[in-house]
Write a structure and sequence with these properties.
Largest sheet: 11 strands, mixed
Number of helices: 8
Radius of gyration: 30 Å
Order of helices and strands: HEEEHEHEEEEEHEHEHEEEEHH
Number of strands: 15
Shape: elongated
Distance between the termini: 95 Å
Low-confidence stretches: 1-12, 18-39, 289-295
């Protein structure tokens, strides 16, 4: 059938409109594909962790610490690439890392650390006594009379030799002359500087040491002689001098959304976190203890 000229004109216009619409649809498809490709090429989320490169059992540059393992778990949960800002945990550590925004997460801080926003705690640990069983010691309390006659190693914190809770507690009891201080920093040019106080117990340089539990337990099992590791009791010497501490993750103040993400991970993966802590022998006090017993 033949069309009249005006009918052919109408058909041609309709055909042209369809072609243009099809071309527009094609263009939209091209834009959508390009946009999708661009979205796929966006950088993956990064989990930037602030950590000490020489601080086992917590962290080191070889990623051998339990905080390294926890950081890997969290990065996996966030579908993020894990990166580190390495800085020795000395005076100015938080100022030069988290507050300088070179990193975003501290792996192990006291729950009540005012300088940062903290998550719910993921473990609670305690100071412990460390001694050789061959010496016949059964120390459990800082009030044990034997502590007045044996040589005691204690940890000193800070470049100014600030005292740890056990050092303060011993000083309150006038146990001073037989106390030997070991800096938690030690000789930082050597690996594992916090191990020196445990090595001192193993070699007999001191008879008993009072040490933060994760450090004591981790290094005690690698000594050439058996060592006893038992919690200091009670968990608090005075209302302001605890020996038990809740340990949490730390983020910058104001980053509540990030903290909420981390809290959800800590809750969801708690069995796996506990397995990591068990692998490193971290001594733990039950989290169900009264809150008044911790700092």
């Amino acid at each position: 059938m033949f069309l009249h000229s005006h009918e052919r004109h109408i058909v041609e216009k309709a055909t042209l409109r369809c072609v243009r619409m099809a071309g527009g649809l094609f263009l939209l498809l091209v834009i959508a594909v390009a946009s999708g490709s661009e979205a796929q090429s966006l950088p993956q989320r990064q989990l930037r962790v602030c950590a000490d490169p020489n601080n086992l059992p917590f962290s080191n540059e070889r990623l051998e610490g339990f905080e390294n393992k926890l950081a890997e778990l969290i990065a996996h949960e966030l579908n993020a690439t894990l990166t580190y800002t390495w800085w020795a945990q000395r005076r100015g550590f938080i100022r030069n890392t988290l507050k300088a925004t070179t990193c975003d997460l501290l792996m192990g801080v006291p729950k009540r650390l005012d300088a940062v926003l903290t998550t719910s705690p993921y473990y609670r640990s305690t100071y412990v006594f460390v001694y050789r069983p061959e010496n016949g010691l059964t120390v459990r309390s800082l009030d044990d009379p034997i502590l007045r006659t044996v040589k005691i190693g204690v940890q000193l914190i800070g470049n100014d030799g600030a005292n740890s809770p056990p050092a303060h507690a011993l000083a309150r009891r006038h146990i001073i002359e037989n106390v030997v201080g070991y800096s938690v920093y030690g000789d930082y040019a050597q690996p594992n500087p916090t191990a020196r106080i445990i090595e001192a117990v193993a070699t007999g340089a001191v008879d008993v040491a009072v040490v933060w539990g994760p450090i004591a337990s981790y290094f005690a099992r690698s000594q050439p002689v058996p060592l006893v590791v038992v919690p200091v009791t009670p968990s608090r010497d005075t209302p302001t001098l605890p020996f038990v501490f809740d340990i949490a993750l730390g983020v910058r103040r104001g980053e509540e959304a990030f903290r909420a993400e981390l809290d959800a991970i800590l809750q969801r993966r708690r069995p796996d976190i506990n397995r990591i802590l068990d692998e490193y022998g971290v001594p733990r006090v039950e989290m169900s203890e009264p809150r008044s017993a911790v700092q």
